[in-house]
Structures are given as C-alpha cells and as structure tokens.
Amino acid sequence: MKSALLLAGLTALVLASAPSAAGADADRPRVALSVSPARLALAAPGARTIKLRNDGAEPVIVDVTRRALGPQPAAETWLQVSPARLVLHSGENATLTLRASPPRLAEPGEHHILVLLTTRPLQGGRVSVQVRLGVRIRMVVPGRIVRDAALGGLRLRRSRNALFMFVWVTNRGNVTVPLRGRVTALLLRRGQRLAQLIPRGPHALLPGARAVLALRYGGRGRGLLTAIIRIRLGPGVRAVERRYRVRL
Fold first, then answer.
1. Fold assignment, 149-247
2. What is the pLDDT of residues 209-221, one digit of tens each?
3. Domain ranges of the chain
C-alpha cells in the first residue's frame, strides 16, 4: 500500500495511477482526490467548510481524523469535523464542515491542527492505493496575544573552509513567529562590523516550537569576535537580541 501526504498550496491534489482500464476510464487514474483550501484560519468559536472532489475512476471511502501540531494536544478535540466519514463516487463533490468549539478556559492565541483525509476502497472495489491529504487549520482563540521568542546557546562547528554557528530559538508566545526576513546576524571584531551572516532555518515557528538557526562564516577574521543575532517580532513589539562571544 502506498501513501502520499500533501500539506501546502491552495489546492491539494494527489493522483495514484494504476494500469489502464478499458473504455472511458482508460486515461483516468484510479484515485484522484483533491481538497480546497489546503490551509485555512478559523476564528473560535466559528465554522468553515472545505471542498472535496473525486476525479478518479473508482469510488472511495474518505476517513477524517485530526492531529494537533502544537504544544496543546487537547486542541484537536476543540475541532469537530462533519461528516467524519463519507463515500465519494467518481466525479462526485462533497463538503466538510469544520467547527471550532474550544473550552471556556482555552489558552488564547493560535492552535494548529492537521485534518487528515485518508481514502480506502469500497468493499469489492479494485483500488489498492491509499491517498492521504492534510489540511492545516490555524485556530485562533480570542484573548491576550503574546509575541515572544528566546535565543538559546551557540554551538560552533569548524570545517576546512568555514565556521558554522548553530543557535536555538524558541517561540515563547501564543502566535506564530515569522522568521524569514525577520532575523539578522552580525559578526563584530573590536566593535567594528566584520560580516553580516545569512541565517538559515525554518520560515516560521508555531507557538511553543523550537528550532535551530544555522550561520555560516567563510571569512578570514580570527581571534575573539562578537556575534549578534536579532529577531524582529513585529510592529510595537520589542525585538529579541542576544550577543555571543566567539573565538576563531
């Protein structure tokens, strides 16, 4: 059994082909399931819908499950999806309703949930391929929004032609922290700018998530240097900055 998982884009589409069948279905894949949108934001309490379509030659059963992506495993229970199981015949469309109902004391901010749509054949069907699509849900619970991050320790790794610096960053707030274009890293020697480094790492951090920023320096500077890493969290929010002493 083969499986596929698609989590990005406005429309997710997975095709699972099999040997050609006779007649009108000769050029059609056995399984072709699409979902739109593949990402959505859902204010809580509230409801949204997503659309499914079976463009394959075979009818399929679609089972719906949920999985929390952040530090709050209980968040998956705050999202109800109906129906939880449906049958899609060839060329048929269906609508799923997603309803966010967090408890009264739910933590404010963003809670990320993955809705998984998994196909299986009808009894006696010819389909031997499993397709799995993922729809990412950003559930927003009203309340006080906290934008905060922390930079951890720095670890060095030397290679023949470069020095690599690795720094942990943690999202301590309750909303996603964008990192792409928000992180700057400078290398100073005796207070003078020696180089600006390009951080590499995730584009964003979910609430409670932790990741590593990687910095590469291939210059000739030696001795005791200072590395400054700064993360801009947004308008009106104080940036996070930390200085590290680095000996090359």
1. Immunoglobulin-like (2.60.40)
2. 999 999 999 998 8
3. 12-141, 149-247
The model's pTM is: 0.82
Give the separation between CA 28 and CA 56, rounded to whole angstroms: 6
What token pair was written down for 12?
A: 């997710």
Tally the C-alpha atoms within 13 A of residue 48's C-alpha that lie toward its C-beta: 20
The structure tokens listed for 187 are 């290398």
Which residues contact residue 22 at a Cβ distance below 8 angstroms, ignoring those fewer than 6 apart?
A: none
For residue 169, CA distances in Å to 101, 114, 226 come to 31, 24, 18
State the average pLDDT over residues 219-224: 88
User: From CA 215, how far away is CA 140, in angstroms rounded?
Assistant: 33
Residue 5, pLDDT > 50, answer no
Alpha-carbon span 177 to 181, nearest angstrom: 11
CATH topology of domain 12-141: Immunoglobulin-like (2.60.40)
